[in-house]
TrEMBL record, chains A, B, C, D:
Pfam families: Lactamase_B, Rhodanese. GO terms for biological process: glutathione metabolic process; hydrogen sulfide metabolic process. It comes from Staphylococcus shinii. The lineage of its organism: Bacteria, Bacillati, Bacillota, Bacilli, Bacillales. This is MBL fold metallo-hydrolase. The keyword Metal-binding applies. Residues 360-444 form the Rhodanese domain. GO terms for molecular function: metal ion binding; sulfur dioxygenase activity. Transmembrane segments: none annotated. It comes from the Bacteria. Keywords: Metal-binding.
Amino acid sequence: MFFKQFYDNNLSQASYLIGCQRTGEAMIIDPIRDLTKYMEVADEEGFTITQAAETHIHADFASGIRDVAEKLNASIYVSGEGDDDLNYKNMPQQTHFVRHQDTIYVGNIKLEVLHTPGHTPESISFLLTDEGVGSNIPMGLFSGDFIFVGDIGRPDLLEKAVQMKGSTEVGAKQMYQSVNSVKDLPDYIQIWPGHGAGSPCGKALGAVPISTLGYEKINNWAFNVTEEATFIETLTSNQPAPPHHFAQMKQINQFGMNMYQPYNVYPSLNNERIAFDLRSKEAFHGGHAQGTINIPYNHNFINQIGWYLDYNKDIDLIGDKATVEEAVHTLQLIGFENVAGYRLPQTTIMTSSIHSADMTGKETNVLDVRNNEEWNQGHLEQAVNIPHGKLLNESIPFDKNDKIYVHCQSGVRSSIAIGILEYRGFTNIVNVSEGYKDFPLALK
Amino acid sequence: MFFKQFYDNNLSQASYLIGCQRTGEAMIIDPIRDLTKYMEVADEEGFTITQAAETHIHADFASGIRDVAEKLNASIYVSGEGDDDLNYKNMPQQTHFVRHQDTIYVGNIKLEVLHTPGHTPESISFLLTDEGVGSNIPMGLFSGDFIFVGDIGRPDLLEKAVQMKGSTEVGAKQMYQSVNSVKDLPDYIQIWPGHGAGSPCGKALGAVPISTLGYEKINNWAFNVTEEATFIETLTSNQPAPPHHFAQMKQINQFGMNMYQPYNVYPSLNNERIAFDLRSKEAFHGGHAQGTINIPYNHNFINQIGWYLDYNKDIDLIGDKATVEEAVHTLQLIGFENVAGYRLPQTTIMTSSIHSADMTGKETNVLDVRNNEEWNQGHLEQAVNIPHGKLLNESIPFDKNDKIYVHCQSGVRSSIAIGILEYRGFTNIVNVSEGYKDFPLALK
Amino acid sequence: MFFKQFYDNNLSQASYLIGCQRTGEAMIIDPIRDLTKYMEVADEEGFTITQAAETHIHADFASGIRDVAEKLNASIYVSGEGDDDLNYKNMPQQTHFVRHQDTIYVGNIKLEVLHTPGHTPESISFLLTDEGVGSNIPMGLFSGDFIFVGDIGRPDLLEKAVQMKGSTEVGAKQMYQSVNSVKDLPDYIQIWPGHGAGSPCGKALGAVPISTLGYEKINNWAFNVTEEATFIETLTSNQPAPPHHFAQMKQINQFGMNMYQPYNVYPSLNNERIAFDLRSKEAFHGGHAQGTINIPYNHNFINQIGWYLDYNKDIDLIGDKATVEEAVHTLQLIGFENVAGYRLPQTTIMTSSIHSADMTGKETNVLDVRNNEEWNQGHLEQAVNIPHGKLLNESIPFDKNDKIYVHCQSGVRSSIAIGILEYRGFTNIVNVSEGYKDFPLALK
Amino acid sequence: MFFKQFYDNNLSQASYLIGCQRTGEAMIIDPIRDLTKYMEVADEEGFTITQAAETHIHADFASGIRDVAEKLNASIYVSGEGDDDLNYKNMPQQTHFVRHQDTIYVGNIKLEVLHTPGHTPESISFLLTDEGVGSNIPMGLFSGDFIFVGDIGRPDLLEKAVQMKGSTEVGAKQMYQSVNSVKDLPDYIQIWPGHGAGSPCGKALGAVPISTLGYEKINNWAFNVTEEATFIETLTSNQPAPPHHFAQMKQINQFGMNMYQPYNVYPSLNNERIAFDLRSKEAFHGGHAQGTINIPYNHNFINQIGWYLDYNKDIDLIGDKATVEEAVHTLQLIGFENVAGYRLPQTTIMTSSIHSADMTGKETNVLDVRNNEEWNQGHLEQAVNIPHGKLLNESIPFDKNDKIYVHCQSGVRSSIAIGILEYRGFTNIVNVSEGYKDFPLALK
């Protein structure tokens, strides 16, 4: 058996290619839209991709499962469990809806379906046994967003992202049962999760790509809280608000979108359009065009820009052409294909900055763009709190010419806020550079 | 003034970017469909592409002039000369139709339009004066397919590719006049041609990218044949037959096609489709799939595959994914976007080969796939002549199981012919490897 | 904790980078010579490489452990176990010699040294506990060439590659004990091996990159043969002969070599030098230069060329420049830096081939280049057996003009043999293309 | 004949490959040290590089002529003209010293040597005639640093860079004669110069890569000043000071250095070493490490860093690894191979900046880092002038804690100066961002 994990750093997402050498067949588990890398490995290793399977309707990226069916004419396997209203629609004819304890074969590799709801009602996992080498014991579990390394999937996305009232509580209860349901599987099986560190699909995902059930039973909190109420309380508290694009992802993945194709971007002809500057925050603060918003193109790009994308509106990207092309591709992975143009960086505006250590506490207009949780744990007395993700649309209680001090916890989100405030017409903004963590102790 | 020649080896085609540093404006002359490289240089050098101009309706590649208008919102300049029936249709609103002695400015750079028909009736050239540095003498001539380095454009394409009866003769006469019309321009002006060595738009193009008018006046045959009839005779004789795709090019460039976008290709699901193997002829002969046709992906690719493309039918390409992707892109440059799938090479069939030196003259079934001109200059007595470009469709006077010896002049075209014969069902084919040039002297 | 496996397809070798996010320190386990990829990931993830550790003196590739010490000024950890004569010499001052049950920390990550001899006397493994997240149970074992996925390391390399009489038996006994010594470790720990499928350091390595101890206990033969003699017999039988470069590797890794630096290769000026053609066997057979040897540049390249390299002699490589550069780099990974020049492919000689199915059994001179084991399981009566790895130097019992039929099992090694025979002056060679496996049944 | 210009943007340098298709021989004119691109084109076009020629001992980059001799075993042609003391030493055995009116053949291409001193005493040009196609008139002139597009070579480098007293005057007289000596060559010949726009080997080089003699006769000032004294005055006045590395180049190119090989750079282990930050000035000012110097890696990199390199001292580079690798390679092109390590950017210090328009004229400590010429044309009354190239070593008349306003003409050189002042221990520096050109009119 051949096994390869594909880890997309932009999505903090893991997908997998497994192949049976005897038959030459291969399957993708949880494919992203762009199938290029899977095909390259399959070609290199001599496999034909005949199948794909998906653990659940993803909320954080656009699935490629339909592309596998349409473009590779492969059989695809998705969950037939859960509530029909919330389940897959408009699926291609190659689709198999599978249920708990169903069995799928990829050549001589057996996948047994386990219904493991909680993150979403239809979530399933796949327990793999490599019968091709004569094994009759399972090797590992494709656990999707059920079990992560060091954490489990959050149950509150449907409620927070698509306003399904009460679904958090239901999901948390299901998760409690799902966790219990796998406790009898052998310790030695590998856990092949759907996400890694940095993913907003959980709170505390580890940076080790693979774990084992036995290790998680001992080290993962979810296996060690035996009381249901405590489990639910722990699981549902302090889950950060999901970026705005999550709602769109559910829509796309439930109902489908156009097949993936790359597209070229040309110089922008419209300076009115909202524009995101992909450079580092240092470069942005050293010089940028008035009213453009800095979302550095790094591993946190999707998590940050996700707050500001309107899927019905075009955007511009600012950066050198090569970086813009990468960002355009990355945005396609969350189904956003409305990059209308690119612009080269300008150096017009230098950001006014002060070091956090130089805050006196006497500044009049202080805007704190941290989350509510952070705010609740301590803040400047005179500050106003608007979480950065709401800054584009909410009313801001300052005059356009007020000198506004903007800070967050460590300087990343306030950097973004500078551009948004400029975009909204404020003209006298000061970036408090290192953030609340480096404020003088006397002020905290 | 900034000046850069872009030479596309696959098309043997030259295009140009010129820019005025004072105003930041730049113009493309004779753009291909994929504008990426022009944009990259413009970005790097600090220019905005505000304009594009085209010397004529190209017959050998798909023009990007409409893409420049639509994607970059640039003004475009095309010929308003020549016969209306044959001229540009469906042009975007940014189009300027220019005529003899019209003047175009790119910042401080002046282009004067010269009507120089012959290759086609509407052909124009652009005489450049760099007024930005105070010059009032011309620097060079964008001569399109009028003057090449060492040759001039052929006048017979409309007749041969789109069956315009009598147009060769008309064109040759016009060319005689066009050549005469530029003889009074100064010797020192540079000649910036539209094609280089290998292009089928002329017979004997040189591999030096740029020339001067004075040098051409002395070394180019066309400036040294003063008698009109001899000029016409020389120009029209021995022009090789144009590949089949030329007709399609005229259509595309006169009437337009969709804007350029890249596209991904997936593994082929259909083994019935005609398939072209992109590997070297050595690799093909060492092992290939039955009935597939070898067109090596090298600088001659377009000239060769052009004979066999049907723009209404899908094709497959055979090769590693990276080479296939390059070939797909190259085919887009001639407007062909029907690559439906790719296949990895197989090693099933080894070609039977004999060295040309081992030909005895007693072989019964000999197929000579050279041009008529080559055939006329000498051939094996018992041979049958079908030029390689017609092999796909014409009837072939052998039985499917006959042992057929296939040769050309040097071994390149017979390599292609092997695959076509297999495709058409012949089963016992021998490749005569070095071609007629290495036949035993006694047989010639 | 951060964890990443680096898998080198050319060496079938796995190395690892682990990092402690709290302290920013990272360690490489079993580094190859070129440290580029480790540095890139460390930079990207914000780590400084402060340490490296090695499981044993590798026999199949050139270690980069000394480069880490010298170039990154990092602490390095190597085995202080085993016989002093066979152990590390000339180590840099940053070296720590570690022994059974020693403890190493990378930030808050603990590595416990286990002496696990058998593959070599000094072999150690590292048992990792991620104390940074508060765990006090081990997560996994860097098992080097002790435990692979589905197999264990071979104990016969010292004897076969460097003529240490009797060491195979000693190693096999040690391996028996080493395997027993880890049986009490928990089932859930991950096994992070030093090699994967295709490595000649074992017989039957799996293509799954990571396993668990519990899974191996059940599925790996070595944990299921409890009787010592049977264990030794199974382990030592049918181990294929190691390629010639293995002896050199032991030398390099025990005593050191120059630090890694890339180097450029220029066109060859010497046609007398031995030359290896990197193209596919199809391309080679379709046309090659007389007397050159075909070793296709694919994942098997090192295993094959290793048989023919003389570390005291220069070689030429044949191929396009990009492939040659990759091959030059790959050869540096086994410490070979004597590529003196490159040549472009020629098409002079086409290989004579017949399909295996067309063998009649009446061919007079048949050369079987398979291993002795394969030969012993069946061969043509009149055939002569010289394993391909010995063909360059052993005497060959045919006349230079004899028509020689060369075959192997599947066509790969006979392809190589064609070139070697040409190199040695034979002039009339026929490649039996698919090999013994496709011979007519009547002949077997 | 095949002809290709290679333009190196980092050096603003042009070299050439010409080849004779009939014989397969090719020659490089004025090669840089890294021969990779020449070899790639030669391979692609089917040429063997058999020769190289050089127009003069270059002062601005490290020549590759010896590499061609040693690595490709090609014949090389250098000037045998000029003063023996200043001429080539330690040349390889493949060297031919050529003199005025000597003839060199590359296949059927003839090069006639013209002694054209002025830029340097030994400078020669090569007049090319393509006899292969039967031409007996010249096609073009490889003019080295004699004639550029729109300018001619400066005669003052030996005096300014290597302190040869009086050589400027001598060179200017020679140049006057050299210019006159080519006036009788035909107008139509192409001028193939050794440098383009941005090169400090002249004052006003154009951005058009190729010109013609006739065009230059009319538009180039040097052909239009007929009076010798005026010619000399014009040629020698206002030539900017050459960067420091020019002296080293003369040394390297006259006496030779080691053959080119690439080398890898590792993370720096020494924070005391002088370090150059390769990022944009915006990124540098947005955040950098104290005392590091910003030389953005763009086309001006060599011209700027050349002022600060000490060929006997190691340096560090700051940037992402890919950019550092490019910069290391570029520095090798000027023979500098002492990059000892690289560092990732830090964000510690934000530059204090004010807009030039906000200067009041009342600032006490103003440092003007422009050239003497610029200073002489107008400056702030209270300012002190130290040209940026001398800032690293000259004494600076301010206290370490003084608030110093630093400006140049447009903001580029003051950006560099910020880092140098920090490096030298100044702690309170203000960057006047747009420079003198945007100062309030009242202050000028």
